[in-house]
Specification:
Blueprint: E1 2-3, H1 4-26, E2 33-34, E3 37-38, H2 42-64, E4 69-71, H3 73-96, H4 98-112, H5 118-139, H6 147-152
Antiparallel strand pairs: 1-4, 2-3
Length: about 160
């Protein structure tokens, strides 16, 4: 069981860490005014502070107005059905590359959730990998991760 207070706290801490990282990293670019005008780190610094302030506000609101149970076992299972395959997808990209990982992810998502036949899942998987390749590699000339498998095959 996940309570509203723990969920709000975790979200606020994650977004607060992101806001703090943005604010601190913008200090390297300089904040304030120079002879040329506003320094390049000023806007990211302000955005980082706004994110941090919003996170503190959410943390306080989460503690003051906590709900009992937000996610029960059935909701956690549904979230895991979305999160676990996505985490595996991201984890195998360095091993087999982006296009094969995307094809496996699409095939697995369609076949596992029984949203059509295996033939439709295979066609969608091949189509998504082909679309990724054509759009990024050919059209925009952006090299996608090839992974260890791609390096072994000479790509």
């Amino acid at each position: 069981m996940v309570s509203g207070r723990s969920l709000e706290s975790a979200t606020a801490l994650i977004t607060g860490a992101f806001g703090a990282a943005v604010a601190v990293s913008s200090l390297d670019n300089g904040i304030g005014w120079s002879a040329a005008g506003v320094e390049s780190g000023t806007f990211p610094f302000i955005v980082g502070l706004v994110i941090l302030a919003g996170s503190v506000f959410n943390l306080v609101q989460g503690w003051l107005h906590a709900r009992a149970v937000v996610l029960g076992p059935s909701e956690l299972r549904r979230i895991a059905l979305l999160f676990v395959p996505a985490a595996v997808f991201v984890g195998i990209i360095p091993l087999i590359g982006m296009c094969p990982a995307a094809a496996l992810y699409v095939f697995g998502a369609l076949a596992w959730n029984k949203r059509g036949s295996l033939l439709v899942a295979a066609l969608a998987a091949i189509g998504s990998a082909l679309a990724l390749y054509l759009i990024f590699e050919k059209t925009f000339q952006i090299s996608l991760p090839r992974g260890v498998l791609g390096a072994l095959m000479g790509f």
